[in-house]
Structures are given as C-alpha cells and as structure tokens.
Amino acid sequence: MKHHFPFFTANPSVTYLDSAATTQRLQHVIDSNQRFLATDNATVHRAAYRKATLATETYESSRAVLAKLINANSDEIVFTSGATESINMIADGLSTSNLVGTKILVCASEHHANLLPWQKLAKRLDLSIEVLPLSENGTFSPTTFEQWVKLIDEDVCLIACAHVSNVLGNIYPIKQLCLLANKYNAITVIDGTQAVAHLSVDMTDLNCDFYVFSGHKMYGPTGVGILFGKYHQLATMQVSKLGGEMVSNVSYQTFTAQPPPLKFEAGTPNITGVIGIKHAALFLMENFHQIISHERRLSQYLLQQLRKVNDLRILGNIGLSSVLNESAQINTNENIEAPEGNIGIVSFIHESADNHSLAEQLWHQDISLRYGHHCAMPLLSSLALGACLRISLGAYNDKTDVDRFISALLHSLGDIKNNDKKSLLLKNEM
Ligand code: PMP
C-alpha cells in the first residue's frame, strides 16, 4: 500500500509508526486538492456561475460519500475542522431540553478532546461527571462492562466514549453501550477518531446519537472532520458558530437558521479539506477488506514480536495473554464479550529502562513513534504512569516496518543496558 503514499518514496529510511497521531496522505487526496486549487477554485453554496456550481456539487458529493462510509444520511453529516471541534460543538449545543438527567459518564481512557468539553458542559448545566472504569492495566472485559452497566441509569443524561482508545487500542462495545444508553434516554457521543480508518463503522447498526472523526487520521487532510448526528438531534441542537450561509433569513434583530447540516457550517468552509476527505473515504471503501485483514495480521505479528522482549509491559486489552472473543454479543443479563482484535495501536513501557531515553534512542534510528501521555492524562495517572511509548499502524505499514522497529528496540535496550553498566562501573570506581 506504500505506493499510494508519496511520503514513503520521499523518506525511505523513516519507519512511520505514528498513524494514531496523524496518518500519511494519500496521493489521491493530494492530487484532488492540487486540482481544485489550481483549476477549479471557487466558493460553495453562494453563487450560480459555472465554477461555483461545480465547487458546490463537488463539496456536496463529499457529504454523500462520507455518509455512505458510515451508513448515514447526507443531512446527518456536518463538516467541521476535526473531531475536537465536533465534540465542542455538541457540548456547546446541548441544553436541558436535550438532556434528561444529572450525570455525564465518560470512559476512563478518553482523549482530552472527549473529556474537557464535557467538563465545560457539566459546569454550564450543573451536571456531575462519572467515569466508566477499566480494569487493571487498562483492560476492558465482560466484568468491566458489568461495572459499566451498574452505572447506567435514569440519572445519566450523556455517555461519551471512544470507539477505539487512542492509547490502549481497546475496541469498546459501542453497539451494546448505545443499547443501554437508549434504554435510559441518555445521549451517546462516540469518538470514532481512531476507528473509522480501521473498523467497519455503521451508524444504523451502532445507533448512537453522535459520532465524530477527523480527516487526518484516515489518510485525508488536516483541518477537516465529521460530526455525525441523528437528524432529530441536529435539528434540536443549538448552533455555537454564527455567520454567513448558516441562515435562511436574517433581520437586524434576529435570524432563522437553515436546517441541518448547513446550520452548523457558518462561514466559508475548508473546501479543499472536504474534497480531500472524500477521496480518503473512497480509498477506504474501495480497499476496506484488504486493509482490515492486513492490519489485523500485522498487529498480531507486532504483538508476537513485542511479547518476546523481556520486561515489556503492554497496556490495555492487547496486553492480555489470551485474546478475548471477538463476537461482542449482548445476552439477556447484558453481559458482554470484549471485542477482540487490535487495529494496530500498542502502548507499552519497559519496566526497567528509562522509557524517555528509550524513545529518544528509537527516534535517533528514524523510528517515528510517540512517547508521552497521548492527551489522556487521567488514564495515564490511573495506570500510575506519566507517559508511555505508543506504536500505531496504518494501512501502509508492513512486516519490514515491524522488524525494523523490533531490531531498533532491542538495539536501544542493549545500548541502555551497556550505558547503565558503564555508569555503574564509573560510580564504583569513584
Ligand atoms: N479523539 C481521539 C481518540 C484522538 O486520538 C484524537 C487525536 N489524537 C482526537 C480525538 C482529536 O482529534 P483532532 O486533533 O483531529 O481534532
């Protein structure tokens, strides 16, 4: 798949393992942006001359493609600047007329983008925030889900949960979570940022109220994202951004907003971003089965290799020695099997090395991986960690990337050990 991504031709020595932070861009995406900017540039939704009509058609065709990608209706797809803006728009747009109850539940592994906006909403509407916990080492299991079930009742007005954790790689049973939430009329906001390029995502099947993701984590451009909302939710949600094109009528005193989705798209949008994300979605749809099976196989290989390294603590479900059953079926007791598999996000720490030095050594060998709290500070604190290393795979990674990483890891650990020995000898000599 590397041939679809010019980054790899330009940087043959780079082992790129940071797709959860941002993916590399598809040549198709770059070409479509180049074409639009060079020869088709015009604004959308405002004028009827030929190029403007064409631009609007192209823009709206992107909405239709994105709707198809997640099996939604076009008028349920709002273009935003990314997952962060999408969640903020939801949090700012909800009020007591949409929310029944006093508690917001957030999963313990949420990215700050799916936590801070809820803190703001909780303050604004005087709600409390409670946490859907994880088990030891950040794992999710049927027992964990039983704990979640106990927390979901008529006091809950909203549940915010990622489809896939950006740190742990855990895939959460969103369909079952939404089933429970719906029973108590709690609104569900699912952060699909790490899921949409790696899993089959179907709004009719998941039945969530809101689902958000970003273009740059699915081989598309930065600065564009999706806010899916069920039409009736979008229709009743307040707009937080006001300005041109989102209105059907304006007087000096007041205005009438357009129906969704346009009421949420004030101002001139990121047209190139929207065109780019369409081509990313088309690529995913065309290559979906191949990508998924390839990523699953490569993740398994990565794990096999990582498990051979002594003293490595792998976090989350992927750190479990026996892999849980994939069929996430809910039974009459609302018990659940944790969804198995890994979409290629693996976080770990070495128990006896200085992990920051380890990351630095890997960076020096051109291994692009992340070290830090991954915008999930509360999760890291709950695991008694300040930071961890994270590898995240994309459709373009292959066995050679994993082998290069493992060999660099062993090399770095060897170097760290030798340096430790040297400094111990020096210490003893002093
Ligand atoms: N949610 C998750 C799970 C993420 O991984 C990220 C990006 N790291 C975000 C939200 C925020 O995405 P963006 O910065 O594109 O808005």
From TrEMBL:
Which transformation does this protein catalyse, written as a reaction? (sulfur carrier)-H + L-cysteine = (sulfur carrier)-SH + L-alanine
Please name the GO terms of the biological process aspect recorded for this protein, alphabetically: cysteine metabolic process
What are its cofactors? pyridoxal 5'-phosphate
Write down the EC number.
2.8.1.7
Q: Give the stretches traversing the membrane.
A: none
Does the keyword Transferase belong to this entry?
yes
In terms of superkingdom, the source organism counts as: Bacteria
In the UniProt record, does the keyword Transport occur?
Answer: no
Q: Which UniProt keywords apply?
A: Pyridoxal phosphate, Transferase
Q: Give the Gene Ontology MF terms in alphabetical order.
A: cysteine desulfurase activity; pyridoxal phosphate binding
Q: In this protein, which residues make up the domain named Aminotransferase class V?
A: 15-405
Family, as annotated: Belongs to the class-V pyridoxal-phosphate-dependent aminotransferase family. Csd subfamily.
Q: What is this protein called?
A: cysteine desulfurase
